[in-house]
Design a protein that fits this description.
heterodimer; A: 163 residues; alpha+beta; Ubiquitin-like (UB roll); DNA polymerase, domain 1; 2 domains; five-stranded mixed sheet; B: 293 residues; Uridine Diphospho-n-acetylenolpyruvylglucosamine Reductase, domain 2; Uridine Diphospho-n-acetylenolpyruvylglucosamine Reductase, domain 3; Enolase-like, domain 1; 3 domains; five-stranded antiparallel sheet; four-stranded antiparallel sheet; 24% strand
Chain lengths: 163, 293
């Protein structure tokens, strides 16, 4: 019944080949098979947003996708944001603005914000609020998160212009 | 592992899907975007023996002009693709305005148009929208192909006219009448959550008299609710404040919503009336603009 399926995925630029049961969610696959535990698993039914990652350039819930469905895909998790010795501007802004306390929701917020700023490099506050509406934070009250994203936006913008 | 074990198939084309559906019938679930089915499986509220993943069916991902000006949307088209489509923005402003209300961006990136309709959550926007727009659904089985009108499709709580051997393949939306005035609004606990109450209004004026009116409510019954009595009352009436107030009152009275964790039946009735009134005001103002042009 639980036949295994071979999949090849690229996560944060590195290619992995694994054999998985069809019922394994992508979130569990990242954490348990690839030991990428930056992706957090909260509600496991698509409400909290903690497990948000990028799949082929789009932010998705990794708890609502099966690992077997990602065969041939390009994935990016929170581990793929920073470069060695240098945080990604969103991470710096989160740190400076105290946009996290316990940190459980943070990987999901970072990935949601990352995907959002790729598409909307110069957002209004209202757009930021809407963009993070699918992520739940029980510590901060959201205001520092909104500020951090608004502050990171122009830094990311100017960095991408330099490139 | 969250979901119970199942046998997994990822066929490459529609005939293969139909053959599997024929073979496994109601033991099988079709997995499209997974944004409704996966939560049910993770919570083990759904334990299908067989999962037929249709995500490889690129043939069901399209937005295209149909014959006589209608809009054809492949069932596997992502909600996000519709949201970003300039063609949809031009051709159907109501569809364009409704899509962003469907859950959150991360969900719309995976969620599909056909998946939302086939799942038929009574609080979801797309089933109600399809009823308001009088859309038609093409469904196929290995033996047959038929067209089901949206008004005949939603039978009850997460229950549709789809047979276990059938696959929803296309949503056909009639050509947009440039004279339409429209509005969509909803009340939910959090932006992007399922609506406690939602309403879609679509109407046409002739000399400021209501020529045709459609009012569909969602989140207030087992399926989208078309408010026939209010619609009939409006037909032939001058589109003024009195008619609007009367329509809102009828809608509120006619509904028999359930109470649940999120809202009481009384609250839903009250909000339904208020949203209907506001939506009619908005739709009438759009219809007046549209008739001027």
């Amino acid at each position: 019944m639980s036949r295994k399926h071979n999949i090849i995925v690229t996560v944060n630029g590195k290619t992995y080949e694994r054999s998985v049961e069809a019922r394994m969610t992508l979130a569990d696959f990242l954490r348990d098979e690839l030991a990428l535990t930056g992706t957090h698993v909260g509600c496991e039914h698509g409400v909290c947003g903690a497990c948000t990652i990028m799949m082929n350039g789009e932010a998705i819930r990794s708890c609502l996708t099966l690992a077997v469905q990602t065969d041939g895909s390009r994935l990016m998790t929170v581990e793929g944001l920073a470069r060695p010795e240098e945080l990604q501007p969103l991470q710096t802004a989160f740190q400076e603005r105290h946009a996290l306390q316990c940190g459980f929701c943070t990987p999901g917020f970072l990935m949601t914000a990352y995907a959002f700023l790729e598409e909307t490099p110069a957002p209004t506050e209202a757009q930021v609020r809407e963009a993070i509406s699918g992520n739940i934070c029980r510590c901060t009250g959201y205001l520092p998160i909104i500020q951090a994203i608004l502050e990171a936006a122009p830094i990311i913008r100017s960095a991408s212009q330099e490139r | 592992m969250k979901p119970a074990p199942f046998e997994y198939f990822a066929p490459e084309n529609v005939p293969e899907v139909l053959a599997l559906l024929e073979q496994y019938g109601d033991e099988a679930k079709v997995l499209a975007g997974g944004q409704s089915l996966m939560p049910l499986m993770n919570l083990r509220l759904a334990r299908p023996k067989v999962v037929i993943d249709i995500n490889r069916l690129s043939e069901l991902q399209y937005i295209a002009p149909g014959s006589n000006g209608d809009l054809a949307v492949g069932a596997l088209t992502r909600q996000r693709t519709v949201e970003r489509s300039d063609f949809v923005q031009r051709e159907n402003p109501l569809l364009a305005a409704t899509i962003p209300l469907v859950s959150h961006a991360q969900i719309r990136n995976r969620g599909t148009i056909g998946g939302s309709i086939a799942h038929a959550d009574p609080a979801a926007e797309l089933p109600a929208l399809s009823v308001a727009l009088e859309a038609e659904f093409t469904v196929r089985s290995s033996r047959n192909q038929r067209v089901i009108r949206s008004q005949d499709f939603f039978l009850g709580y997460m229950t549709t006219a789809l047979q276990p051997s059938e696959l929803l393949t296309e949503i056909r939306i009639p050509a947009w009448d440039p004279r339409w005035g429209w509005a969509v609004s909803e009340v939910s606990r959090r932006e992007g959550d399922f609506a406690l109450v939602g309403v879609i209004v679509l109407l046409r004026l002739d000399n400021d008299v209501c020529e045709k009116a459609g009012i569909v409510l969602f989140g207030v019954g087992a399926a989208p609710v078309r408010m026939r009595k209010a619609e009939e009352m409006l037909r032939g009436r001058r589109a003024d404040g009195k008619a609007i107030a009367e329509a809102a009152r009828i809608v509120s009275e006619d509904l028999e919503p359930d109470s649940d964790l999120h809202a009481s039946a009384e609250y839903r009735k009250e909000v339904a009336g208020t949203l209907t009134r506001r939506s009619l005001v908005e739709a009438i103002s759009r219809a007046r603009e549209a008739t001027k042009r």
